[in-house]
């Protein structure tokens, strides 16, 4: 009987008319868990990532790619928040999270050589990577946020203390490709990789005595962090028009890493018949060694500033068009911008379509969310690429945000 009444109550809530939910207050207490992953490229379609194994056709790739080569960018983030909304005008919370960013390119000349060989048996070809064509960062952060609503103004501020855990940049790499009638095409890549870490890394002077955690103290790790600020400001100029601006990770004080070393690595790829190698067109072998220690570096997180305009054609928030334009900084300076369409079902459900250009990457996402007061889930999926047209079909984006509260 108890189960019957609970099920009946839930069904009535779900079938309630829209007007019942129209003036829902925010949850007074809320726990939120957010996770997002992005993998961008300018060749593989979204469906390719659901194949096991991933099929790599070097001949087709060599013909399809432009002079930029194969461009790959990856990122992932997760965040836990504990939020309070004591009044409709004031909100606040605490958050903890982590972020991973990575970017690399594979030269089109190398892909063409792997696909076609060097032209004749016994011949070789050489080339190099641009040092700026590889970058990686891992950050952890913590902080607090507060939101205020007075009159036609809304302001949210999120100061954060972030700690760099890993940084890779300015790689020097070269490759040699040779063709043999017996073994096929072989590519050997040699790279000098500067790596910085929050824990000590080995180097030539610590061979045989290296112990990564022997001298690490929590206070030392926390002391390497930096401070940045995110903020969102909105002003309702008319019932159908809201103007605003947004800052994301604007640097206040850079972080630092003083544990670094150079990794010398060699990777060898030999082309083989994919049908005999689990779908992969090559076999690999690798060797590596740590060499000289590195000094201290300063680091900031990717940041951007945007102007944002929200248009409500019916002077009501159920339908909104939101264009934005600004500047972003990560591995270069970019003109960022986007356009978002939001259909809001009066708090209990929403649907969104978002086209965005950020840090040199186009992304197209579809989002949806469901809210039954005590429980809310928001989902987003899409594609991403350096090319606008390919961003509708290539790469993959997946995000989920789950909120529990009362």
Unreliable residue runs: 1-24
Radius of gyration (CA) equals 25 Å
- The CATH architecture can be given as Beta Barrel
Number of strands: 21
Please trace the helix and strand order, writing H or E for each element.
HHEHEEHEEEEEHEEEEEEEEEEEEE
Overall pLDDT confidence: 84
Please, what is the oligomeric state? single chain
- Sheet/helix structural class: mainly beta
Silhouette = globular
Strand order within the widest sheet? 1-2-3-5-6-9-10-15-16-17-18-19-20-21
Specify the number of helices: 5
Euclidean distance between termini CA atoms: 25 Å
The number of domains? 1
- CATH fold assignment: Porin
Strand composition percent: over 45%
Helix content class? under 10%
Query: Biggest sheet, open or closed, and with what strands and sense?
Result: 14 strands, antiparallel, barrel
Quick tags:
about 400 residues, mainly beta, 21 strands, about 10% helix, globular
What this model shows, in words?
There is one protein chain. The chain is 10% helix and 60% strand. By secondary structure, the chain is mainly beta. It has a single domain (2-405), classed as Porin. Strand 19 and strand 20 form a beta hairpin. Helix 3 (58-64) packs antiparallel against helix 4 (108-116).
Give a brief description.
This protein has 406 residues and is mostly beta strands. 10% of the residues lie in helices and 60% in strands.
């Amino acid at each position: 009987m108890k189960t019957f009444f609970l099920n009946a109550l839930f069904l009535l809530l779900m079938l309630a008319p829209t007007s019942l939910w129209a003036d829902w207050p925010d949850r007074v207490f809320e726990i939120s868990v957010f996770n997002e992953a992005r993998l961008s490229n300018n060749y593989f379609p979204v469906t390719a990532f659901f194949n096991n194994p991933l099929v790599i056709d070097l001949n087709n790739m060599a013909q399809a790619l432009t002079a930029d080569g194969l461009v790959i960018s990856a990122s992932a983030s997760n965040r836990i928040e504990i939020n309070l909304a004591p009044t409709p005008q004031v909100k606040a919370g605490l958050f903890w999270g982590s972020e991973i960013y990575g970017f690399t390119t594979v030269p089109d000349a190398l892909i063409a050589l792997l696909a076609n060989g060097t032209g004749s048996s016994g011949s070789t070809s050489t080339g190099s990577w641009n040092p700026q064509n590889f970058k990686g960062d891992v950050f952890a952060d913590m902080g607090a946020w507060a939101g205020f609503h007075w009159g036609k103004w809304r302001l949210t501020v999120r100061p954060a203390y972030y700690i760099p855990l890993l940084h890779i940049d300015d790689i020097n790499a070269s490759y040699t490709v040779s063709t043999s009638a017996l073994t096929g095409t072989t590519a050997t890549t040699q790279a000098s990789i500067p790596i910085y870490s929050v824990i000590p890394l080995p180097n030539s002077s610590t061979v045989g005595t290296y112990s990564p955690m022997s001298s690490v103290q929590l206070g030392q790790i926390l002391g390497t962090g930096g401070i940045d600020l995110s903020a969102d400001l909105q002003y309702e100029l008319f019932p159908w028009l809201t103007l605003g601006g947004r800052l994301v990770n604007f640097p206040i004080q850079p972080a630092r890493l003083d544990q670094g070393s150079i990794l010398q690595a060699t990777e060898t790829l030999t082309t083989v018949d994919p049908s005999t190698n689990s779908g992969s067109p090559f076999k690999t072998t690798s060797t590596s060694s740590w060499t000289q220690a590195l000094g201290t570096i300063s680091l900031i997180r990717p940041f951007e500033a945007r102007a944002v305009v929200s248009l409500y054609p019916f002077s009501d928030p159920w339908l909104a068009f939101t264009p934005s334009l600004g500047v972003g900084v990560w591995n270069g300076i970019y003109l960022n911008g986007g356009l978002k369409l939001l259909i809001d079902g009066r708090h209990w459900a929403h649907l969104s379509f978002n086209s965005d250009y950020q840090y040199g990457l186009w992304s197209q996402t579809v989002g949806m969310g469901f809210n039954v007061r005590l429980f809310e889930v928001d989902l987003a999926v899409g594609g991403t690429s350096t090319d606008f047209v390919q961003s509708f079909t290539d790469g993959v984006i997946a995000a989920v945000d789950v909120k529990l509260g009362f």
